[in-house]
User: What shape does this take?
Amino acid sequence: MTDFVHRRQFTIAWSHCDPAGIAFNSRFFEFFDWGTWMLFEAALGVKPPDLAAAFGIVGLPLVDAGATFMAPARFGDVVDQTSRVSDFRRSSFDVEHRLAIRGEVAVEGRETRVWAGRDPADPSRMKAKAIPEDVIARFRPQ
Amino acid sequence: MTDFVHRRQFTIAWSHCDPAGIAFNSRFFEFFDWGTWMLFEAALGVKPPDLAAAFGIVGLPLVDAGATFMAPARFGDVVDQTSRVSDFRRSSFDVEHRLAIRGEVAVEGRETRVWAGRDPADPSRMKAKAIPEDVIARFRPQ
Amino acid sequence: MTDFVHRRQFTIAWSHCDPAGIAFNSRFFEFFDWGTWMLFEAALGVKPPDLAAAFGIVGLPLVDAGATFMAPARFGDVVDQTSRVSDFRRSSFDVEHRLAIRGEVAVEGRETRVWAGRDPADPSRMKAKAIPEDVIARFRPQ
Amino acid sequence: MTDFVHRRQFTIAWSHCDPAGIAFNSRFFEFFDWGTWMLFEAALGVKPPDLAAAFGIVGLPLVDAGATFMAPARFGDVVDQTSRVSDFRRSSFDVEHRLAIRGEVAVEGRETRVWAGRDPADPSRMKAKAIPEDVIARFRPQ
Assistant: This one.
């Protein structure tokens, strides 16, 4: 577990909610995605649209995502989201997102992403690259 | 009014609907967008992802959009959408979308789009181009 | 034009953007909707999920919406949104939304909504009600 | 593994895609949700908005969801989705979704859902109920 954590707070909007009056499941994957972008901005000091150019990559494509829904998030609920990298491997990493409402965890999310550059053999495709050590170091406790 | 009309039918999904149990307004603008792509495919015989290359444009950027909501569209409702170009101008055009449920018009949509190429002075920007006569002809009654 | 204005600031996320790299048009109608909820919370001092019960209504159904797109909103752009009621009528009202990026207006939105209660003749339907004078007064300059 | 499979085909729309030109991950969870509704309609012969009333439940709330992304889904790609219940337990079940493009699996999805009624002790809450045997039987090979 790395120790760098990004926290943000947001409110469940009417447009997030389904006829059951709760945030529809796909919305959480948007919340996770945005949490990851902001986590990387906070850790690396690079704005999301500049991340790829700053590190010579194409992006951080998602290869696996999941969520466990423990309690509903209703219209107007204030959500406290914490996002952290739980594991760095050679060229991929896992991000954990925890969304709490009134102090109770409502949703846990997990993403596996790849540090991806262009494939030298075919520039229209992406290829996993080794994550630089100094990138990983920014997520570690000081 | 040009006479080429594209018709499609689809069903209102759970994920389209808000806590009032009806399709949330922003979803209709997705339905309009898809209607326009399919209208152009039907009229011009070019698949949506190939449209730009086939006509030497960058795309059909939207400059104005609107909708009038006459009746709600509920989860499970079958929608009959008709889309047509209502006006072609030199480099822009209007698309009208009509969404009917059980034979009654529920939503009317309108889009104004531009026939846009790259700006020769600044390739990162778009610039309106004249719509080719043979494109317009494909939307006219035979 | 009433004088009560709600301002909020947010950032264009990756998930808002389409293959042209700009926020997809339907997303703006979500931004408008949320602006209206927050405008009413600010003016009336009632949280969005409590609005209907506090005023004996079912909601503020949208009957017309539109947007004019003057400039693209790109991934990472910081948006300053101002929302205000531009006209109150007996039982409906218009909301104007202005979204500016780096000081320039990028998108203008407009919504027409109804102050709606249950139809006494058919509780499954909504019916326009007169907007209370003290509601309107909260949007007026002091 | 139960043997009842629902198949549907759809096309990746412009509005589904992100700046990388591929369908954004959260969209797949909408595709999974719709696949589940249609699978139940096909197996049980009940339209989605009538499902809850027909079986005396409140709904099929999602408690866990996940996806593995093997290949990108691009604008205009035709997707063949198959959905099936992979496991029925006393009051919950798993749904598997497989999305193939040009014959290759691009995305695999998994959902765990609950057969949920109202909690007799608190009608504002849901409570897991035993899935009727005749419901399960409809998903079994004949």
User: Anything to note?
Assistant: Strands of chain D lie at 5-11, 62-69, 78-88, 92-101, 104-114, 116-119, 122-128. Chain D has a mean pLDDT of 95. The two ends of chain D are 14 Å apart (CA to CA).
